[in-house]
Amino acid sequence: xxxxxxxxxxxxxxxxxxxxxxxxxxxxxxxxxxxxxxxxxxxxxxxxxxxxxxxxxxxxxxxxxxxxxxxxxxxxxxxxxxxxxxxxxxxxxxxxxxxxxxxxxxxxxxxxxxxxxxxxxxxxxxxxxxxxxxxxxxxxxxxxxxxxxxxxxxxxxxxxxxxxxxxxxxxxxxxxxxxxxxxxxxxxxxxxxxxxxxxxxxxxxxxxxxxxxxxxxxxxxxxxxxxxxxxxxxxxxxxxxxxxxxxxxxxxxxxxxxxxxxxxxxxxxxxxxxxxxxxxxxxxxxxxxxxxxxxxxxxxxxxxxxxxxxxxxxxxxxxxxxxxxxxxxxxxxxxxxxxxxxxxxxxxxxxxxxxxxxxxxxxxxxxxxxxxxxxxxxxxxxxxxxxxxxxxxxxxxxxxxxxxxxxxxxxxxxxxxxxxxxxxxxxxxxxxxxxxxxxxxxxxxxxxxxxxxxxxxxxxxxxxxxxxxxxxxxxxxxxxxxxxxxxxxxxxxxxxxxxxxxxxxxxxxxxxxxxxxxxxxxxxxxxxxxxxxxxxxxx
Length: 539
Known about the structure:
By secondary structure, the protein is mainly alpha-helical. It has 23 helices and no strands.
């Protein structure tokens, strides 16, 4: 017996130190088998918790800690967090837009507006993806919708299948970065930071990626016109614009803007929120005059381009203007999507039932994964997993910048195999404390002096965490496109014409993944891309 005790003691010491590492290995194996993520997270957490209790590493109250973190007392748990209320609202908004004809009308008018530019159809798809990203963060819905609308048209007009599929896949996934984004909401909750700051900080990097896509498409179309033929004038089915209606719309818009900015001069500033009323007046005028104008360029712009811009202003503008918190803006967006569906004549009980049903299923999936990740993180911390990671980093003896590059590389490689939710919920709580610890090393790069007191240190740490979150968000953009498990590619293949081969889809996304890595490098080199706009809005 004494021999067995002597043999067991080093084994126990080894398990006590490295059980956190075994948790990650077990989770990776479970995910590679294709087992549902939520069940894998909960199963690994429960299994290792029971094992740790058996080894006297943990006690039974660890399970109570999980319940406490998820539900809490008196509304203190994670599921009571008001930030997470935004998720079902944004899911509802995206699903409602999918059921209306907003995207179809938008793509048509963008094709007409960009017809004279090389690669105009691909550019219109990119611009549509950017606009739709600013109205919904539901990637699966965006990929399927844009593929069904644009891919057959692009192939029929002679576009290269690789360029067509790459453009659609990359532009459709911008919604993961450009707010409102479900991923940013989850990040804000995990990092305990302002979701409004993350939303605003992600705008410039998101638009930068869209601009890189634009530049690449225009360059390729100019060098090889055969892979991106221009739209022929005979294909434009719009009549000339009526001057009277154009002047009427410009007149109403000018009057509304004048009243909004000169309300104080007119002594009516105490009665209403005049900027908001002026904006609504321009929107109503656009819809009525657009309907009166009919099938013309002006009518198409007013009916197809103005409504999604209206929704973007309702959601993001309400945050910028301070009229609503990001959570409240999610409700504004859901209501705005219903308005657009009503205007398009598609707001029926059948559509509403389908939208609510899909919203409930999607939200339940997201929260189930969130509960599983909470359980995993709780057990991981209790078995000293974070200490193990910090010790590993100290053992590697990497300077802060090489360590940041290693973390970004690890997240990029994980994107080949895991979904963004899995990476966000598992990795972010583990790596964020390490980055916060190393924050003073990045102070100079962010334009701050070395912190000399607690207040300065807290400010630097907050800015570094925001910068790190945006870096992770840009990095995770690639997780939808990189094989073998690029989910956007499978969404696309499922609804693409049978003539499109998977090899062509893989070939098409390579340039866009490279562009995304260039965008990541730009945010690394110029942190102002992520931090300048929030400092301007919330100064």
